[in-house]
Amino acid sequence: MLSYLHAFHAGNFADVQKHAALTLAVAMMQAKPSGIAFVDTHAGSALYDLDSERARKTAEADAGIQKLWSARERLRSPDWQPMLGLLADQNPGADRLKQYPGSPAWFRHLLRAEDALTTFELHPSENRQLAEWAADRRVKAVQADGLAGMLKLLPPRQRRLLVLIDPSYEIKGDYAAVAATLEKAWMKCRHGVFVIWYPILTSGLQQTLLDQIRQGSVRKVLRSEVVLAQPPERGMTGSGMLVVNPPWGFDQRLSAMLADVAQGPDGLGVDHRVDWLVPE
Ligand code: SAM
């Protein structure tokens, strides 16, 4: 039974890091003309209302994307432009954001004619909203398990691949399942770019994912972590991203983006670091 709903968390500090890394990876890959197969294994619904009861209950976006939006004219990295562009389109003239795009909408915003996007979402109501949104947008929305579904698509018809793996980790076994799936996917498509989100928890459960990947065959795994400067005593204290086969220079450009938003009055109140979990 799936109980996680991303509407409670959309636009939080973890989404800022995740969608910054995602839009940067897509934009850098699109510097070359050949088509890219994009796969979103845990898509959620494509758009979130930040004024909804669910969003207001946690108010997580206030300490996340709303801060970034307030600071938009002071951001130094030009790599924020794709994110700022879609936020402006979705929220014309707004000083405070009402709509926040989920991962399928970020992919869709950047999709070129030669690219393709397949999304997986298991939750019936999330998938219904996603399918309605996707209907006329060249997006294939599938209600199925995202890890198994993604493996079936590999290798893709397009020459290049970018997969976002963003589970809710409601099931403890998800950490090991993600690592095992990455290993299989990499065997089928060694040049693919795989972007994996994970929570940093006081329980340390994420260590299973990191250890299993470190001990496996996959090479060239970049790790980006943002950690709350004032963490809660229990629960999620930070947000992590792994990027397998990042485009050259991605690490410096992502660091520059995160440095823009880490601290200061409009900052997310986080420390950030980028290193190689597994080198080449
Ligand atoms: N990727 C989205 C974004 O960045 O906007 C957020 C996704 S949310 C963290 C995780 C989603 O995975 C939830 O909507 C949940 O219903 C869905 N989910 C859970 N188990 C799944 C599975 N086995 N396959 C596909 N989707 C699943």
From TrEMBL:
Reaction equations catalysed: adenosine(2030) in 23S rRNA + S-adenosyl-L-methionine = N(6)-methyladenosine(2030) in 23S rRNA + S-adenosyl-L-homocysteine + H(+)
Active site, renumbered: D166 (proton acceptor)
UniProt entry tagged with the keyword rRNA processing: yes
Record-listed S-adenosyl-L-methionine binding positions: H19, H42, S103, E121, D145, G146, D166
EC number: 2.1.1.266
UniProt cross-references to Pfam families, sorted A to Z: RsmJ
Highest rank taxon of the organism: Bacteria
Keywords for the protein's UniProt record, in alphabetical order: Methyltransferase, RNA-binding, rRNA processing, S-adenosyl-L-methionine, Transferase
Alphabetical list of InterPro entries matching this protein: RlmJ (IPR007473), SAM-dependent_MTases_sf (IPR029063)
Annotated site location: Interaction with substrate rRNA: Y4
Similarity comment text for this entry: Belongs to the RlmJ family.
Self-association and partners: Monomer.
Function of the molecule: Specifically methylates the adenine in position 2030 of 23S rRNA.
Stated name of the protein: Ribosomal RNA large subunit methyltransferase J
